[in-house]
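Sync notes, pocket subgroup
Present: LS, DG
LS reminded everyone that the earlier model was apo-only. Rerun requested with NAP included. Inputs:
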Amino acid sequence: MDIQGKTAVVTGGASGLGRATVEHFIQHGANAVVIDLNDTAGAELEAALGGKAAYINCNVTDEADVSKAMAFAFERFGSVDIAVNCAGIATPGKILDREGRHTALAQFQKIIAVNLIGTYNVLSQAAEAMQANDPGADGERGVIINTASVAAFEGQIGQAAYAASKGGVASLALPAARELARSGIRVMTIAPGFIHTPLFDGLPEAAVESLTGQVVFPKRLGKPAEYAKLAGHIVENTYLNGETIRMDAAARMAPK
Ligand code: NAP
């Protein structure tokens, strides 16, 4: 699908990978609805990108919120053609510590809720909106890109909830692609490695050095623009479907 003239909804679109994706799509002629909880960053991005971006406060775990966001996209730009799920949280927590269970069940549930259930909520509602689109070349009506993580495949100690949520996201692509094929909708997943977003700004220098040490080549953190470029390629390359692409410079995470 050409990006030019399309409308993308991007969750987590006010920060990091989502923000870079919004900027990339707009540079390539699309409109973007920025779905996020960060009102200050959302308003600032909307102002910076002019009439091509529209921010809406929307919790991806909330069915009614996401429904409002889809209606908002139609109202502002007339369609939903592309959906990119970048909203996510990565709170670490061990299963056990010396005293017993460390991670409260509520914390595990919250990570699954935002990362996995939120992704499904947006995927299902975006697909519902996309199936009304006129088909383009190959009968294509929409593209959905979800964001897993290399933690889906080699989660570290302290990442049980995060890795489980991202494993779920990675497993979602194939059955969703198989089912939504009849509507002309593709579903892909990107599994990033270590990408320099605000997520990293809070980490101690030693932690950043240790993570960078696990990268093979090029030996540096990834850039949000590199994620955005891959998302743009997935939109444009109709033959990509039902697959998870690692974008990690060959990094494989150690147990800790
Ligand atoms: P980020 O800069 O923290 O951006 C995530 C955005 O999502 C934030 O603006 C956050 O708002 C928003 N958000 C959180 N919960 C939400 C909810 N319930 N509803 C709507 N928006 C919500 O993170 P990032 O680094 O760009 O990461 C984006 C995605 O990539 C995440 O799913 C992350 O797990 C995944 N990922 C990132 C990396 C990396 O190295 N950066 C690697 C692998 C995977 P608040 O700031 O208000 O919470």
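DG: The chain has one domain: 7-198+221-247.
LS: The longest helix spans residues 105-130.
Action: DG to write up.
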